[in-house]
Design a protein that fits this description.
By secondary structure, this protein is of the alpha+beta class. It has one domain.
Amino acid sequence: MKRFLVLAFALCMALAVNAQELPYSKYLDYSKQEFRDSQFKYNKKTNSWTLFRVSGLGTTINVLAILVDAYEDIRPSHNDYKITVQMGQDDKASDVRVVFYNDETYHKLLTFIMDNGEKLLETSSGKLIKHQALFNGYNLELNMEQHIVSRTSARTFDPKAVKNVDESYNEYEFIIKTDVAPWSKRIEKQLMKQAKRDAKGKKKRHVEDLM
């Protein structure tokens, strides 16, 4: 009886883990038609599908700000995003990259990684904080990078009225990497050029090679 309860508990835990759906992973299995139906645009050179949103309202407000000599907001909207699915050969997805600016979305993804990821790794460099983990055979990466932008008051005939303002915002990036290598005609050409340079002894050395 005790052994049965242990097995039942283990099965429940396994089902609970499998029930955790990896955010944005559905795009890894999208067909060409599903991408088109979801308004993704295909880039033949890079062999990738992209969906993005840039808030038109913010652009309108900036134009009005210039007209009335007010401050224009040059920060991205928290509703803006860009989703790129890089394909490999045979129409298989290599990775999904999601760039966004919403703090709440970042915290949800961070919670998912912390609760469900394996081999967690956190690193930071300057204004970049990176979280990495494994989940169901995928390599996950969640980045937060702070950007500082400077703006001035809108056009004015009075130089004394011009003011410099420094603002900051966070850009987030969530990446799901599969074991499929990225492929495109551009990548293929770059590899061929690199191979020719290597054959001529013109291989570029990385900074690590000079240590």
